[in-house]
Design brief:
With 149 residues, this protein is an all-alpha fold. Helix content is 84%, strand content 0%. It has one domain. It starts with a helix and ends with a helix. It binds fe (ii) ion (2 copies). InterPro entries: Hemerythrin-like (IPR012312).
């Protein structure tokens, strides 16, 4: 059974592959639409398990400012992607250069976000939580993921 960090990093790897495919120049408009749909679905489940389960376990009211800062920054990045970038992409014809420009920005934002999570938040989580806690969180997230999919 994957612990919390392993589960989230695995999601990130899947997301990188999907975003890489979305940016490939040989994709047809219908393939781009399909890929964007997959990215949107994956992102929505992933951000939901992070916000519902992982982030609150990582930082609460009593946590040091450094943790709370990471928590709030990460949440705002989720919001920017979900409320601005993805809706814009859904409103753009997938055959256009405008779509590809927006897809590139989506890829860069999401990759930057995942990198920060892995390099800062997840590292700190591994330092401040026990292996049992991380395993328990992993189980909770795996179960919630099943419900959401
Ligand atoms: Fe995230
Ligand atoms: Fe993440």
């Amino acid at each position: 059974m994957a612990n919390a960090v392993e589960l989230l990093v695995k999601d990130h790897e899947k997301m990188k592959t999907l975003l890489g495919d979305l940016l490939k120049s040989d994709k047809s408009a219908s393939e781009r639409t399909e890929l964007l749909g997959k990215v949107q679905k994956e992102l929505s489940v992933h951000t939901q398990i992070e916000e519902e389960i992982f982030y609150p376990a990582f930082a609460d009211e009593k946590s040091p400012a450094s943790k709370k800062k990471m928590y709030h920054e990460a949440k705002e990045e989720h919001r920017a992607v979900e409320k601005l970038v993805i809706p814009d992409l859904n409103d753009t014809a997938p055959s256009t250069m405008e779509f590809m420009g927006r897809a590139k920005v989506l890829k860069e934002l999401v990759e930057h976000h995942m990198e920060e999570e892995e390099e800062e938040m997840f590292k700190m989580a591994e330092e401040t939580m026990t292996e049992d806690q991380l395993k328990e969180l992993g189980q909770k997230m795996a179960a919630r993921k099943k419900e959401l999919q």
